[in-house]
């Protein structure tokens, strides 16, 4: 069975500080990896994803995540956070199997709280 | 272009009553998914429609839950009779590429269900 573990349920950080949200997964088959974000009173939005190729992927708002196959991790990082980054972040995987792409397996979520 | 829309956004019902949640996917998206997040737990897959057919309903918790997608457009998720443990957020999502893994899945804002 597959599982995703987000190691921190809450991460408080000051504005302009760096942040890392940790994600580890377990799977017997190859997976695609995703980070979703849920801002207050909004739905889930795709932040970035890893399908293949370069193991470092970036989002348009300065986040990046690196796929580490040997450590089965996909940690999310940002060198300098803003107040507007306050949200809940979800790591997810889907199996590289036909017709299983929409079956996302989520971690428990990490609440990022950015303080002035 | 309209995103995935869900109705109602919030619902409070008594134990034993019936609730029907509606989801309108992005126009043209064949794939429609239901997920839910109960309090304090991770987001979990419920089922997947391809057009009007149920592709995968392995995540449906029990026979009190009934999902339909007549005509392959909008979908409804009925809970009858509702129990306390059904409280949570029900997310609908859609994607366009049939069978493709790794494609972007677009989520709605969720329907918050509280059973008292």
**Main sheet properties of chain B:** 7 strands, mixed
Helix-strand string of chain A: EEEEEEEEEEEE
Q: What structural class should be given to the helix and strand makeup of chain B?
A: mainly beta
Tell me the distance between the termini of chain B: 37 Å
Number of helical segments with 4 or more residues of chain A: 0
Radius of gyration of chain A: 14 Å
Approximate strand percentage of chain A: over 45%
Ranges of chain B where pLDDT stays below 50 over 5 or more residues in a row are: none
- C-alpha geometry of chain B: globular
Assess the beta-strand content of chain B as a share of residues: over 45%
Name the structural class of chain A: mainly beta
Return Rg of chain B in Å.
13 Å
**Multimerization state:** heterodimer
Q: Summarize the largest interface: chains and residue counts.
A: A-B, 29 and 30 residues
- Total strand count of chain A, please? 12
Q: Level of helix content of chain A?
A: under 10%
Shape label of chain A: globular
Task: Sketch the topology of chain B as an H/E string, one letter per element.
Answer: EEEEEEEEEEE
The helicity of chain B comes to under 10%
Q: Regions of chain A with pLDDT < 50 over 5+ consecutive residues?
A: none
């Amino acid at each position: 069975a597959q599982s995703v573990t987000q190691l921190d349920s809450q991460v408080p950080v000051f504005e302009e500080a760096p942040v890392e949200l940790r994600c580890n997964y377990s799977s017997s088959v190859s997976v695609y990896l995703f980070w979703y974000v849920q801002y207050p009173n909004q739905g889930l939005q795709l932040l970035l994803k890893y399908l293949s190729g370069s193991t470092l992927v970036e989002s348009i708002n300065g986040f990046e995540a690196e796929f580490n196959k040997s450590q089965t991790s996909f940690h999310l990082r940002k060198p300098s956070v803003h107040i507007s980054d306050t949200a809940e972040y979800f790591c997810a995987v889907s199996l590289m199997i036909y017709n299983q792409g929409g079956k996302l397996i989520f971690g428990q979520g990490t609440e990022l709280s950015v303080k002035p | 272009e309209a995103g995935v829309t869900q109705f109602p956004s919030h619902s409070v019902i008594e134990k034993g009553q019936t609730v029907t949640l509606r989801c309108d996917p992005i126009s043209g998206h064949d794939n429609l998914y239901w997920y839910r997040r109960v309090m304090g737990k991770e987001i979990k897959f419920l089922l997947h429609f391809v057009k009007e057919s149920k592709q995968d309903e392995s995540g449906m918790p029990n026979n009190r839950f009934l999902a339909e997608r007549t005509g392959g457009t909008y979908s409804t998720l009925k809970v009858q009779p509702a129990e306390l443990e059904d409280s949570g957020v029900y997310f609908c999502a859609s994607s366009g590429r049939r069978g493709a893994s790794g494609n972007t899945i677009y989520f709605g804002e969720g329907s918050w269900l509280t059973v008292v």
